[in-house]
Design goal:
The chain is an alpha/beta fold. It folds into two domains: 9-96 and 187-269, Rossmann fold; 105-170, no CATH class. Helix content is 38%, strand content 22%. It contains eleven helices and ten strands. The strands form two sheets. A six-stranded mixed sheet has the order 6-7-8-3-9-10, with helices on both faces. It has a four-stranded antiparallel sheet with strand order 2-1-4-5. Strand 4 and strand 5 form a beta hairpin. Helix 4 (112-120) crosses helix 6 (136-155) and helix 6 crosses helix 7. The longest helix is centred in the middle third of the chain and has 20 residues, at 136-155. The protein binds adenosine-5'-triphosphate.
């Protein structure tokens, strides 16, 4: 650790409210490889938190631990200060978390709107049987989900494409739909895995402004290689290297940190 900031989620909470979400002392091993090594990070409401580091540093593994895709070998995950038991990923979504994947990960046979409705499903109240029998309540529920999904598409600027299949859409629009799907769950924590990947300057500028808007109502975690975006939009940044936290701080302090420069330099010289 090279900055003054604490890397303990619980310690960060000592001054007041616990962080919206935290991992504490998390280690993940894949056979002989340690992908995360005693990592502690806290994500706070109203904050955009960047997670950066060279290829293979453990960024995606961290997101996977946060959303329950990956069970840690050691350490705990906390939400609002309370330790979460080991849950299936869909249960964690019910706790107010949503994530996007590297790439897009949309269902090819569903329209953009239907893809986003899958994300909004957390708000469905009708049971399976009522939906199967198409009872009036299920129809009302579906209409409410569609409305919510439309609003999410609107927010990301993809409403005109609601009825299109993902495969017929340009890649940047597919990324927007994937983001809308995560937003439709109305999460308190959103985990974004390389949302700027494959985007041009105009789309990145739109993404930057959207991220700022989102941070007013949720904790945003941004795993991203696009450094200009990260430095422009993040309130705090955690830097991983070989599965360890090597720096935490605001963009200026992280940029000035020699350990961070050395990690990225190592990446360049090993190519
Ligand atoms: N399921 C897995 N099985 C074995 N090794 C894995 C698995 N997932 C990740 N790893 C390894 O764990 C390390 C961390 O991977 P991870 O994908 O978290 O890194 P990353 O920082 O997201 O990399 P990138 O920037 O390239 O996406 C890497 O060495 C990777 O090869």
């Amino acid at each position: 650790m090279t900055t003054a900031e604490t890397r303990s989620g619980s310690a960060a909470a000592a001054g007041g409210e616990p962080p919206a979400f935290a991992v504490d002392g998390v280690t993940v091993r894949f056979g002989g490889l340690t992908a995360m090594d005693d990592v502690s990070v806290d994500f706070r409401a109203g904050e955009i938190h960047g997670v950066i580091g060279p290829n293979g540093a453990g960024k995606t593994t961290l997101l996977n631990v946060c959303c329950g895709f990956q069970r840690p070998d050691a350490g705990v995950v906390r939400r609002a200060g309370r330790t979460l038991p080991a849950l299936a990923p869909h249960q964690l979504v019910g706790l107010g978390m949503a994530r996007t994947l590297q790439g897009v990960g949309l269902f090819r046979g569903l329209s953009a709107l239907e893809n986003v409705m899958v994300g909004a499903d957390r708000h469905r109240r009708t049971g399976f049987t009522a939906a199967l029998l198409a009872l009036p309540r299920a129809a009302r529920d579906r209409a409410a989900l569609a409305e919510r999904a439309h609003a999410a598409l609107e927010e990301v600027g993809a409403a005109p494409y609601a009825d299109r299949l993902p495969g017929s859409l340009p890649y940047p629009v597919q990324k927007r739909v994937a983001l809308a799907r995560a937003l439709a769950a109305d999460p308190e924590l959103i985990l974004l895995d390389e949302p700027a990947g494959g985007l041009g300057a105009d789309d990145i500028a739109a993404l930057e402004s959207l991220l700022r808007d989102l941070s007013s109502r949720m904790a945003v975690v941004l795993v991203e290689h696009h450094m200009d975006l990260v430095m422009a939009v993040c309130d705090r940044i955690t830097v991983l290297d070989f599965g360890r936290v090597i720096a935490v701080g605001d963009p200026a302090s992280v940029q000035a940190d020699p350990a961070v420069a050395a990690a990225y330099l190592g990446e360049e010289t090993s190519r």
